[in-house]
Amino acid sequence: MKKSAFCFLALLPLLSGCANLGQMLSETNEDYHFRKTRWGFSRERVELAEAGNPVFQRTENELVYKHKIDGVLCKLVYTFKDNKLRTAGYVTEKPGQNAENLIREAVNKHRMPTDTAGNMVWKSFNTVIYANVYTSVNKHSMTKHEYSSGGLLEDLLKRELMKRDEAGTLVYLDGVFAYVDRAFYDELHEINFPLSELSFYEKQLMGIIKRRSRTIIPGVGTIPNQ
Q: Exposure pattern of 92-131 as b/e (b: 16+ CB <10 Å)?
C-alpha cells in the first residue's frame, strides 16, 4: 500500500504536466491573449507554450527569446509578477532601417488602433496593445555631393529618402509592439502604481523608456542627442 502511494505521488508532476499539455492542445487562437499564452500563466506554462524556442534569458520574473518579425530582429519578452504573466511583446534588438515593420504587423493583425493620440494603442476587454517606432540613430555620411530632385529615377529616390532625414543622413529606428494585461493596466491607473516597481522590460514594453538617441559622424564619433 505504501509503495503504491509513493508511486502515485511520484507520478503527480508528470500527470499535471500532461494535463496542462492536453488543455493547451484543446485551446484555440481565440482563447489566447498573446501568441499561445493567457494572462496569469506561470513561467513554466509559458515555457511550455514556447517549446522548441531556445530561451535567451531567464529570471524569476522574466523570460526572453530571440525572434524575427517581418525581417526585424527582436527580443520576445514575457514578464511576470508572483509567477503570473502580466506583460509580453517584442522589443527591437538593435536599431535598424526596417523597424517600422512592427507597426505594419500591428495594423495587419489588429486593424486601426482605438487610440492614436501620439501613440498607437488598441484596447479590448482583456488586453491593451501598444506599438511605436522612433529614431534612435542618425548616421551622417561625408560626401562632396548632394541629391538632386532625382532625374530619371525620381520615384526611386523619393522612396529611398523616406528612410533619411536629409540627403547624406541615414536614419535607424527602434520599436516596440507590446501586450499588457488589461487588469494590470487598469490597476496602474487606479492605485497610482509607482513606476519604480516596474521591471526594465516592462518599462520598455509600455514605452516608458527607450534607447537613447545618438548621432554618428564619420571622423568625429558618436554624439548623444539631447
A: beebbebbbbbbebbeeeeeebeeeeeebbbeeeebbbbb
Place of cell 509600455: 206
pTM over 0.90: no
**Using the 8-state DSSP alphabet, how is residue 113 labeled?**
-
Q: What is the mean pLDDT of residues 73-97?
A: 97
What is the per-residue burial (b if ≥16 Cβ within 10 Å, else e) of 133-170? beebbbbbeeeeeeeeeeeeeeeebeeeeeebeeeebe
Query: Does the pLDDT at position 102 exceed 50?
Result: yes
Q: Which of 95, 28, 149, 44 is nearest to 36 (CA)?
A: 28
Measured on CA atoms in the order 135, 141, 144, 147, is the torsion positive or negative? negative
Question: How many residues are given for the chain?
Answer: 226
Least reliable range by pLDDT among 1-10, 71-80, 106-115, 171-180: 1-10
pLDDT, tens digit (0-9, with 9 covering 90-100), for 190-215: 887 778 889 999 999 999 999 887 67
Q: What does the angle CA 215 – CA 68 – CA 127 come to, to the nearest 5 degrees?
A: 95
